[in-house]
Amino acid sequence: MSSKRLFQSVAEQISQLIEQGAYPPGTRLPGERELAEKLGVSRVTIREAEIALQAIGRLEIKTGSGVYVSERPPVGLGELPTASAFEVTEARLLVEAESAALAAHNISEEAIEKLEGLVEQMRSEDDEVSNHADRQFHLTIAEASNNAAMVHTIKSLWRMREEIPDVKATYENVCVHDADSRTEEHRAIFEALKARDPAAARHAMREHFHRLLETMLEATERKALEEVQQQASLSRERFLASAKIG
Question: Options 1.10.357.10, 3.30.470.30, 1.20.1250.20, 1.20.120.530; which CATH number does 85-227 get?
């Protein structure tokens, strides 16, 4: 059985165990070693299956804590969950940092050359060209990881980024103001991959998303302040109008 089909089969087995009540919602799954022995596969296959199940909302992977059965019903394979831009970006940080580290071990010269060209395309003043290059950059790294579960998860996260209206609007608003920073961050990721340095690639990818998260928080705070100011202005106008009538 191919590696791709194997992790999918294991994901189905874990889903069946959840549905049968072996692992109720909110409970922690057994560790990778125990599950691997129970299902007769490697720990790597268990990890791939868990990542795939996280992508559809069946599981929640909590760094430093473990893997938990989601308390919310999973979405269908073609559906998207309700998620904020912050949640999508946080998930991308966790998954894509490890994808970059794996890619540093496996990436080909052809992929390196492709990434370098995509970084240059990100400098384009045409937003459509720049955004397309951004997407291809991240997906090229995912594919270079040689991990089918990683590729599937990252593609799913990109769907959320592009198809959930609020998430898409937030990204468009943030990316308009940080084109230079974004390009330099992608250049740093590229250089780490070119050097085949997993730790540097992981760090560069994390730094990219940490900065993006901070920018999103600042944008949210600005929007909230603008809304308060607008509300205060409306209240002032109503007060002055009432005073004139009185």
Answer: 1.20.120.530
Helix count (H) and strand count (E) of the chain?
Answer: 10, 2
Cα 80 to Cα 87: distance, rounded to the nearest angstrom: 13
Give the separation between CA 40 and CA 213, rounded to whole angstroms. Answer: 40
pLDDT tier, 77 (very low <50, low <70, confident <90, very high otherwise): very low
Query: Which pair of tokens denotes residue 72?
Result: 């919310």
Residues 153-175 pLDDT 10s: 999 899 888 888 888 888 887 76
CA distance 222 to 23: 43
Are 72 and 27 in contact by the 8 Å Cβ rule? The answer is: no
When comparing pLDDT for 110 and 149, which is higher?
A: 110
Distance of CA 230 to the CA centre of its chain: 33
Q: Tens of pLDDT along 220-232? A: 666 555 555 666 5
Handedness of CA 136, 139, 143, 148 (dihedral sign): negative
Q: What is the pTM of this model?
A: 0.61
